[in-house]
Amino acid sequence: MRERALGAFYGLAIGDALGMPTQSMSRAAIERAYGPIRGFVDAVAEQPIAPGMPAGSITDDTEQAVLVARLAIHGGGRIDAHDFAAALREWEADMIRRGSLDLLGPSTRRALDRLDAGAAAEEAGRDGATNGAAMRITPVGIATPLGEGFLDAVVAASRVTHNTGLGIAAAAAVAAAVSSGVAGADLKTSLDEAEQAAAEGALRGHWIAGGDIAARIAWARGWVRGLGRAGLADALTDVIGTSVAAQESVVAAFALAENLGDDPAAALTLAAEIGGDTDTVAAGCGAILGAHHGISGLPAHLVDKVRAVNRLDLAVVVDGLLQVRGNDGRISSGPRHECRGHAG
């Protein structure tokens, strides 16, 4: 279980770092700037979010996942809405001090502004339908077994910023695939569990228009089976989509896992080539496949590089999350705690 949990978190970080230099660029622009992506590369000067960032650098996907993990661990499995909001604000301030343009996404920013203005936690994220909750949900999947209370854990970690059926369904899908993988399920079972969790998650939170996450994952999985690399890339960019919308980028991560699940390196490098929200697509796919293959099933040179470049040691965080899982794995909203978690 520890091997798979480490794989999930490092898989997320590797995917995130592979997608860093190509995020928010078109597929054609990526081809012109980098050619085929075969590993970590430095961001070019014209990169719109991370210009010149060194190869192997992580982005907000990993840093906010670490933030969620630390809040859950320090809170004994409880994530308080106001502590979470304060930690996100602190994280963004630190990013600004570092000169980064990789800041809070649109749904998260709107929700925190509402919370600061006095809105209830249940209302702050009433229109959050982007992929922000899904991108940082991996720690919940590691800490929480499937079953009674699982969806409540996902909602508790998502509702402040993404309290919509789309936002929660997307987060539930990723968390379920990770949790199932950590428990030792085969990849097909984990992806099936993700579909079921997405269907249940869609019934939580505020309704907002958009394609059903569970239905789109099921459709995408069936469609991409057997496609070659070029055909898969076309399917992802032209039809499934890779924008920040939850029903595009999260579904794209599952399509990659379905088609290239036996080869994490191939899946994650392709995710980095297809344009759009590449770091989040690759991070989500990396978490899913890492939970299935374990850390020893990820390319060792990529694990070593992402550790060294970011001074990233996730072992203590993963051990803390597994301890929560061992204590029934219940992550829920609860009384406020004095401890404030933040990304490393």
TrEMBL record:
UniProt-annotated binding residues for Mg(2+): T59, D60, D61, D277, D279, T280
Keyword line: Glycosidase, Hydrolase, Magnesium, Metal-binding
A GO term for molecular function: metal ion binding
Reported cofactor(s): Mg(2+)
One Pfam family of this chain: ADP_ribosyl_GH
Cofactor binding notes: Binds 2 magnesium ions per subunit.
Membrane-spanning residues: none
Documented EC number(s): 3.2.-.-
EC category: hydrolase
Cited InterPro entries: ADP-ribosylglycohydrolase, Ribosyl_crysJ1, Ribosyl_crysJ1_sf
Superkingdom as given in the UniProt entry: Bacteria
SUPFAM superfamilies linked to this entry: ADP-ribosylglycohydrolase (SSF101478)
UniProt family annotation: Belongs to the ADP-ribosylglycohydrolase family.
Name the UniProt record assigns to this protein: ADP-ribosylglycohydrolase YegU (EC)
Species in which this protein is naturally found: Amycolatopsis camponoti
